[in-house]
């Protein structure tokens, strides 16, 4: 049995609680942007922050698709964890073609950030990446397959969202507390909608459509979506599983469920779906 001395234990605990590891320190800066070199890809860098204060950027930031340092050209592959976190004066960001990822907490708390131009090459948006930001609208490119938990939670100015049909997974709390959200499409081939994914989206339009591939809808996924009056569910062969209170606390659910012809009785036998105030078949 190994016994760690109290002093060593304290130092280990302190290191674990530091806001970033050495891996996120910037390696160089260029054009007012800080970069870290990918350890596994020596020709690729990611955008990062200057120091532990995080607030490294303000105004409009344009990230190039490549950058030169010490005579070497690097591709810009992504935005690292915490890169723009807490930059309250950041207003807009242009991200380059070729960038494939946005890391965890990358734009968290950027309350003045109203616009981000996403490249078509983007594949992933990290955990809480835009939590509490100031986005007005959001258009995700077709290469994105997953919206991570809390990715856009608390964007209270967000009114318009366009999600690609290729999207398979919307994580827990992904759009929770987006109070101004009026327009959002559920992707045609979505498979999982996480817990509280759209909780407290008070202003969402009057109806939405859920495609044929949906498998699971999480607890409170559509809770407190008061404006949503009609839900169309296109599933036929495989009826999706809804966790308890997926559409809110009140039973009957004060919404109309629209299903394919001949499927009404099947939905009436399934928990949560059977709680809709009215179930009708498509004409």
Record the SSE blueprint.
Elements: H1 6-17, E1 28-30, E2 33-37, E3 44-48, E4 59-62, E5 66-69, E6 72-79, E7 90-94, E8 101-102, E9 115-117, E10 124-125, E11 137-139, E12 146-147, E13 160-162, E14 169-170, E15 183-184, E16 192-193, E17 207-210, E18 216-217, E19 230-233, E20 241-242, E21 253-259, H2 264-268, E22 276-281
Parallel strand pairs: 3-6, 4-7, 6-8, 7-9, 8-10, 10-12, 11-13, 12-14, 13-15, 14-16, 16-18, 17-19, 18-20, 19-21, 21-22
Antiparallel strand pairs: 1-2, 2-3, 5-6
Provide an overview of this structure.
This protein has 283 residues and is mainly beta. Helix content is 6%, strand content 28%. The protein has helices spanning 6-17, 264-268; strands at residues 28-30, 33-37, 44-48, 59-62, 66-69, 72-79, 90-94, 101-102, 115-117, 124-125, 137-139, 146-147, 160-162, 169-170, 183-184, 192-193, 207-210, 216-217, 230-233, 241-242, 253-259, 276-281. Strands 1, 2, 3, 5, 6, 8, 10, 12, 14, 16, 18 and 20 form a 12-stranded mixed beta sheet that branches. Strands 17-19-21-22 form a 4-stranded parallel beta sheet. It has a 3-stranded parallel beta sheet with strand order 4-7-9, with no helix packed on it. The chain is elongated. It starts with 5 loop residues before the first helix and ends with a strand.
Count every helix, treating DSSP H or I runs of 4 or more residues as helices. 2
Rg, rounded, reads 22 Å
Structural class: mainly beta
Helix content: under 10%
* Oligomeric status: single chain
- What is the typical, i.e. mean, pLDDT? 90
Q: Give the biggest sheet.
A: 12 strands, mixed
How far apart, in Å, are the first and last alpha carbons?
71 Å
Write the H/E string, N to C: HEEEEEEEEEEEEEEEEEEEEEHE
Count of strand segments = 22
SS strand fraction: 25-35%
Query: Uncertain spans, ≥5 residues at pLDDT below 50?
Result: 1-23
Question: What spatial form do the alpha-carbon principal axes imply?
Answer: elongated
């Amino acid at each position: 049995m190994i016994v760690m001395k109290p002093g060593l234990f304290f130092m280990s605990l302190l290191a674990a609680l530091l806001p970033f590891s050495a891996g996120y320190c910037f390696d160089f800066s260029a054009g007012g942007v800080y970069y870290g070199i990918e350890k596994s890809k020596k020709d690729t860098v990611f955008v990062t922050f200057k120091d532990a204060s995080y607030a490294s950027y303000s105004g409009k930031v344009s990230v190039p698709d490549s950058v030169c340092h010490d005579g070497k050209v690097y591709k810009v592959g992504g935005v690292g964890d915490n890169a723009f976190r807490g930059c309250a004066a950041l207003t807009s960001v242009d991200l380059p073609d070729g960038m494939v990822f946005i890391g965890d907490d990358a734009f968290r708390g950027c309350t003045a950030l109203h616009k981000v131009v996403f490249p078509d090459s983007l594949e992933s948006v990290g955990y809480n990446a835009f939590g509490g930001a100031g986005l007005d609208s959001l258009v995700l490119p077709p290469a994105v397959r997953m919206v991570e938990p809390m990715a856009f939670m608390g964007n209270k100015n967000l009114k318009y969202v366009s999600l690609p049909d290729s999207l398979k997974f919307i994580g827990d709390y992904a759009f929770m507390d987006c109070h101004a959200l009026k327009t959002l499409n559920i992707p045609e081939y979505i498979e999982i909608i996480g817990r509280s994914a759209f909780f407290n989206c008070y202003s969402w339009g009057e109806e939405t459509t859920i495609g044929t591939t949906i498998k699971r809808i999480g607890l409170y996924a559509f809770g407190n979506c008061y404006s949503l009056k009609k839900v169309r569910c296109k599933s036929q062969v495989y009826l999706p599983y809804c966790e308890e209170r997926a559409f809110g606390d009140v039973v009957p659910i004060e919404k109309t469920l629209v299903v394919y012809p001949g499927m009404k009785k099947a939905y009436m036998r399934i928990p949560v779906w059977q709680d809709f105030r009215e179930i009708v078949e498509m004409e």
